[in-house]
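A quick aside before the break. I want you to see a complete sequence-to-structure record at least once, exactly as it would be stored in a machine-readable document. Don't worry about memorizing anything.
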Amino acid sequence: MIRCMDARWLLAAVTIGLLVSGGCRKPGPPTSQPAGAAYDPETDPLVNPPSMFEPPPEDLSRIATDETLYITLRANPNTMNPLFVSSGYDFIVVDSLYKGLVTFDKDLQWRLNDDVVESLTESDDHTEFVFKIKPGLTWHDGMPWTAHDVVFSWQQILDPQVPCLAQKPSVEPITECVALDDYTVVMTLPQPFAPFLAFATVGILPDQKPRAGEGEFAPFFGRDALTFRGIDSL
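That is the input. The structure line, written in tokens, reads:
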């Protein structure tokens, strides 16, 4: 009984000593960052390495143009057609293959896609939009990238028999989409619609009529700078 009491007193003494020494110890650094010093991904070199913001070299021959882009996804995309995208995986792949008239900048603000659009003129009543397409662009099969491709793509979405549900809101405000020439597209709205340009990010498909005939979809993807080569399932 005495030994048991001695052991309890010894355990109590050790516990009290640890508490006292811990209370007298110099406090360590805070476990969380103080207010105003939260993690900022813009300053993280792993997220935004400086090379991402370097301007292209004046000598464009220094840019590698025959390299392979590997995109790792947790699932396979369901489609390569920008009109029928339905999942995040579809969008990731399609956005790498096709260009829209409008895109978003790093702040998620819409802007003209200067890869393919030279200028945009908007009417005073905000119901007519005239896009000038850059001349000299080509698809990877060598066919020109023109206003007729834009009209073909948007007419597919406007067609009630084409089940591209994810893209229908993009063109619902449009009453007319025509090509005045090879490099001029006019889109007409019945009334002003503020978010219209933000919806004009849909990828442009190549006009199929010069390639495979009316109503057929030629089995190719890509544009001049990027060509789809296939999917490997892991």
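Two observations worth writing down. The CA atoms of residues 159 and 168 lie 9 Å apart. The first strand starts at residue 102 and ends at 104. We'll return to this after the break.
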